[in-house]
Amino acid sequence: SSGINAEYGDRDIDYDIAIPSRHSYLEMRMQRVEGYNYWLEGTTVPLFLLPLDVIAIPGQTLPLRIKESSLQYALVRHLLDQNQNTFGAVHMPAERAALLMWRSWSQCGVTVQILEVSHDSPQQIVLKCKCRQRFKTISAERQADRSLRASVVIRPDLVPCRITDPAGRLRREFEGGGWPEWVWKLHDPYTIEEKIRCIISKISPHINLSIAPTDPLMFSYWLISSMPFNFDQRVAMLHEDSLVVRLISQLQHLERNQLELNYYCAVCSWEIISSAHLISMSTDSPFYVNPSGHVFETITAYSLSNTLTSPAEPTERDSWFPGYAWTFINCWCCLSHLGWKFIAVSPDTTPSVFYGVTRSAVTQGVRENRPRLRREDLLDMFARE
User: Fold this and answer.
1) Measured between alpha carbons, how far is residue 178 from residues 28, 41, 145, 350 in Å?
2) Is 315 helix (H, G, I), strand (E, B) or coil?
3) Is the pTM of this model over 0.85?
């Protein structure tokens, strides 16, 4: 059935959220690829680049279906033929990739390690990858086989030593030194991380913080993909080499807006998700790939506002969440595609309903006097066209 406001799903979870991280929907016999390239910071490395519509972040799993007709097929085929397992991923829409139209946010990418590969189908190559190290693109050029070859520099992760002990007390070597304890703690990544966890537990109480990394560096990357930061903020955080500066910027943004963080329709600006309704449905990254090879970064929530659910019969085919059937959801105002409604197949599974919204369909921000289109205005615009 359809409705302007999607109904509330269950807030308790007994579903095994480790299942989606296996990406079993790929339904391929995956072969393990051995080896891992790690480069020291500042090293210049030649890499083949894979342009993506999503922002790849270190620590995330990236599933890929590379179609034979796509520009990326030659790149992946070359890597596998040369027994290489590492390439670079940059955020760049396909039309810009074809023209090599670089912007500053395209120059920051991550190295990607191929973990598993399948050649079962002659029409596509299926990969399961892990995002590793940040880099800055220096130059890139198109090869004869249409692949992108680039020269990149590995960016540093400036991680300070731990200032506090596990109990939160100042370590002995930092006592004295002319600075009071509170000043030291302002720059302790573990102390900052703990403050951020406290804020998240208030603004998004259904996010499972036990699945978040305990290492402050990986935690800062997890925040980029899990919290409602907008595009420019996420890019700036990835460009930042200092862990402490990155964590402080994340803390300040969450502190300032902890009661008003939301997701809005990218077309008409109607509110779609409140941060209070976010829910953890996977232990891993939010990336999933559909049968056509399109990668989606997905935000999961137990409730949405201003949406319509497709009347089509839900299907379990290619479900990213085994045990759930899915159907489409659209914006009530502009009717643009937002994502999917997932319905539990078994009546004993909780949540019985939840929603997955693709990040590209929404914008992030705070609740304010956002200009939003009325449905009548949109219908009038369509009529004039």
Assistant:
1) 61, 32, 61, 54
2) strand
3) yes
Structure tokens at 31: 């072969």
Tell me the C-alpha distance between 343 and 10, whole Å. 11
Q: Residue 226's closest CA among 157, 279, 305, 290?
A: 279
- In the chain, the amino acid numbered 104 is S
Model confidence over 265-321: pLDDT tens digits? 998 889 999 999 999 999 998 999 999 999 999 999 999 999 999 999 999 999 999
For residue 16, how many other CB atoms are within 10 A of its CB?
A: 12
Buried-exposed string 312-350: b where 16+ CB fall within 10 A, e elsewhere = eebeeeebbbeebbbbebbbbbbeeebbbbbbbeeeebb
Question: Which of 134, 61, 104 minimizes the C-alpha distance to 298?
Answer: 61
Tell the burial category of 9 from Cβ atoms under 10 Å away from its Cβ (0-12, 13-18, 19+).
Answer: buried
Place of tokens 């995330």: 60
CA atoms within 13 A of residue 341's CA, in its CB half-sphere: 27
* β-strand pairing of 124-142 with 148-154: antiparallel
Sign of the C-alpha dihedral, residues 208, 212, 214, 219? negative
* Three-class DSSP category at 103: coil
